[in-house]
Amino acid sequence: MKLFGHARNRPPGEIKAFRYKFQEQRMETRYLLRTAVQVLARGQTINGISEDISINGLRIEIDGEYHGDLNMRVLVSLPKLQELTSKFDVSDLHYRVVHISGDKNVLHLRSVAGEDGLPARRFFAELIKSNKSSLKTYPDEEEIPGIGHALRCINAKTPSTLAFVLSKVGGRYLPQVGVLGDAANPRLKTLFSHFAEQRKMNLEVFFRDRALNAPFIQQSIKQVKTEHSPVTRELFVAFRPAEKEPADAIDARYEYRFSSDESRQQFIENALTTGQFIAMTITVTVTGKPDLEMLQSEINYIGVYAIHRAKELEERLWSISACVHAVDITDQVLLRFGFDEHRIAENHKTPSQHAIEPGGIKALLKS
Question: Of the candidates 257, 256, 281, 255, which has an alpha carbon nearest to the alpha carbon of residue 268?
Answer without folding.
Answer: 255
